[in-house]
Specification:
The complex is a heterodimer. By secondary structure, chain A is mainly α. Chain A has one domain: MetI-like fold (Orthogonal Bundle). In chain A, 81% of the residues lie in helices and 0% in strands. In chain A, helix 5 packs across helix 7. The longest helix of chain A is centred in the last third of the chain and has 52 residues. The radius of gyration of chain A is 23 Å and the shape is elongated. The N and C termini of chain A lie far apart (85 Å). The C terminus of chain A is likely disordered. Chain B is mainly α. Chain B has eight helices and no strands. In chain B, helix 1 runs antiparallel to helix 7 and helix 4 crosses helix 6. The model of chain B has no long low-confidence stretch (mean pLDDT 91). Classes of the chains: A mainly alpha, B mainly alpha. At the A-B interface, helix 3, helix 4, helix 7, helix 8 and helix 9 of A face helix 2, helix 3, helix 6, helix 7 and helix 8 of B.
Chain lengths: 242, 210
């Protein structure tokens, strides 16, 4: 009768669905703002890590390595438990945005860096020979091409970012995970609460994951066609030459 | 300084590191095994098993880890450490499956055809030709997933499993000065950093060797 998924527990979840929905909205807000911050940081540090000036390279390397090799939980706990000791008390919402933003910024920086370095060196040289400055080369030649390459991994990062906003549950942040957890620990109706939470997260993440895969396939197909074309073109040139 | 890093505290933190590493290692090994099975099913089984593997992978890839940690802890009556290992194995298997699938997909079709033309059965082709190569290709990605697992074990503190982060936070409760708190935070972060950075460097070396 009293299984974790009894009918009356489901009814209770749907009666209090507004609580879950509020959490869902908070998760959404933190995700959007976090993504914006992560993109800004990611692009800045990603571009810096390909610059010729050594100090910029070192700074962005330090940022990426430190953030990628320490847990998000520790970073967020530092903002939440550590900073108040030096009289900096941030609201939890802001901690969430800063936490996932800075964390995923490091990952996006790596994505951007790989995107830029995957552009053949000849293009930099060609742009330079046409009198483009470094900034102009980046702005008009390199970055527009990079964008296409990095969109699929970026969508992937966005999925991870949304999933990681659940960190807010550990600092009473009022997001979806926190609402579900606090609601179900007050009445012990864990089963249906977690199922509903899972479905809500899935609804956010799955379309992005599908989109990412589709774009990736499209990009791959295009690249392979290009390679084939260039091989053919080369063959024609050599044939003509011979 | 000496009050933070005395022998009792160090031993206390060391226990946490031990638990973190045990949970991470066991769940990485288990999820590499289950991930391989899932990947093979998703790629090569057109029937019901392939369908199930796809659904499993998509569900776990698109929901937060913390959800699984909480639900396993509260819905499955096993010891805290085992519930940690179970939730990480379930979650990471799906990730490993996708990594391994990427590895298998990167192997050219010609190899399958060559194997079949030599009279290899489908199973033999997988066992002797495709899997060993895919596995080799995936080693760097598996290792960087290991970094993620070590980092993410800190989520287990949400259900009171006293791994490294948990022990650190408990210890932090006994300090009051901002200097001690920051020192402890720095020490915890540095320890995680050393563990993970070592693995990251291995990943980079292997990648450039390939």
């Amino acid at each position: 009768m009293n299984s974790p998924f009894s009918l009356f527990k489901w009814e209770a979840v749907f009666k209090d669905f507004s609580i879950f929905f509020e959490g869902f909205i908070t998760t959404l807000e933190v995700s959007i703002l976090g993504l914006t911050l992560a993109l800004v940081l990611g692009i800045i540090f990603g571009v810096l890590s390909t610059s010729k000036i050594k100090i910029f390279k070192i700074i962005s390397r330090i940022y990426v390595e430190i953030i990628q090799n320490t847990p998000l939980v520790i970073q967020v706990f530092f903002l939440f438990n550590g900073l108040p000791y030096i009289k900096i008390v941030l609201p939890v919402f802001l901690i969430g945005v800063l936490g996932v933003g800075v964390y995923h910024g490091a990952y996006i920086a790596e994505v951007v860096r790989t995107g830029i370095t995957s552009i053949p060196k000849g293009q930099f040289e060609a742009a330079k020979s046409q009198g483009f400055s470094h900034t102009q080369t980046m702005r008009y030649v390199i970055l527009p091409q990079t964008v296409k390459i990095i969109i699929p991994p970026l969508a992937n990062q966005l999925v991870n970012l949304i999933k990681n906003t659940s960190i807010l549950a550990m600092i009473a942040g009022g997001d979806l995970m926190y609402r579900a957890d606090s609601w179900s620990s007050s009445n012990m109706y864990y089963g249906p609460a977690y199922v509903v939470t899972g479905v809500l997260y899935f609804m956010l993440c799955y379309p992005l994951a599908v989109l990412s895969r589709k774009l990736e396939l499209k990009e791959k197909r295009k690249v392979s066609i290009n390679v084939e074309d260039s091989i053919k073109a080369q063959a024609i040139v050599t044939e003509g030459g011979l | 300084m000496s009050t933070v890093f005395n022998q009792t505290n160090m031993m206390f933190l060391l226990q946490g590191i031990k638990l973190t590493l045990i949970i991470a290692l066991v769940s990485i090994i288990l999820s590499m095994f289950f991930g391989t099975i899932l990947a093979i099913l998703r790629n090569f089984s057109v029937g019901i098993f392939g369908r199930i593997a796809t659904i499993y992978i998509e569900i776990f890839r698109n929901t937060p880890l913390l959800l699984w940690i909480l639900s396993i802890r509260f819905l499955v009556p096993i010891k805290p450490m085992y519930s940690g290992i179970l939730s990480f194995t379930l979650f990471t298997s799906a990730v490993m499956a996708e990594i391994f699938r990427g590895g298998m997909n990167s192997i050219s079709k010609g190899q399958y055809e060559a194997a079949y033309s030599q009279g290899f059965s489908k199973f033999q082709t997988l066992r002797y030709i495709i899997l060993p190569q895919s596995f080799r290709r995936c080693i760097p990605t598996f290792l960087s997933q290991a970094v993620t697992v070590i980092k993410d074990t800190s989520f287990l503190w949400a259900v009171g499993i006293e791994e490294f982060t948990g022990k650190g936070m408990i210890l932090m409760g006994s300090f009051v000065s901002s200097f001690q708190i920051f020192l402890l935070f720095g020490a915890i972060a540095a320890t995680y950093f050393i563990m993970n950075f070592t693995i990251s460097c291995c990943v980079r070396t292997i990648r450039t060797e390939y």
